[in-house]
Amino acid sequence: MNTTTVTRQIVRIDEDLCNGCGVCVSPCAEGAIQMVDGKAKVIREELCDGAGFCLGVCPTGALAIETREAVPFDHEAVEEHVAERPKTYIAQTCFRCGTDEDHSPLLPVRHDGHSEWVCMRCLPALIHG
Ligand code: SF4
Fold it and tell me: Which atom of ligand 1 approaches the CA of 40 most closely?
């Protein structure tokens, strides 16, 4: 593993705001977020690419992107990590039509006070009513 740090974007989790719901674990395709002692944690910095797909699903606003010194994102480490734990990934579906992420890109949205996933076909109807 490369231990030389760089300045880059990475997910920050506010433990005081985290209620331990675990909703942010599945959206992280890299498996960087796991629940530890009832709180979400970035378990290894090199697994977090700072893309922030987890942010939209958090009901409490505990997740943010910050720019700080961290070890670089490591694709190979992600591949090894994901291969070790393939069954923990839960595929998401559009809350309106049920389309899964193999058939349409899904975006995290807030709707009626809930964090949901919506597909590209349903997104315009959601925006325009
Ligand atoms: S979605 Fe937010 S509140 Fe829920 S476990 Fe993740 S950081 Fe904590």
Answer: 5
Contact predicate 53/29, CB 8 Å: yes
38-66: pLDDT as tens digits: 999 999 999 999 999 899 889 999 999 99
Pairing relationship of beta strands 39-42 and 106-111 according to DSSP bridges: unpaired
The third-level CATH classification (topology) of the domain covering 1-89 is Alpha-Beta Plaits (3.30.70)
What type of residue sits at position 41?
K
Q: Which residue has its alpha carbon closest to ligand 1 atom 6?
A: 24
**Global confidence as pTM:** 0.70
DSSP 72: P
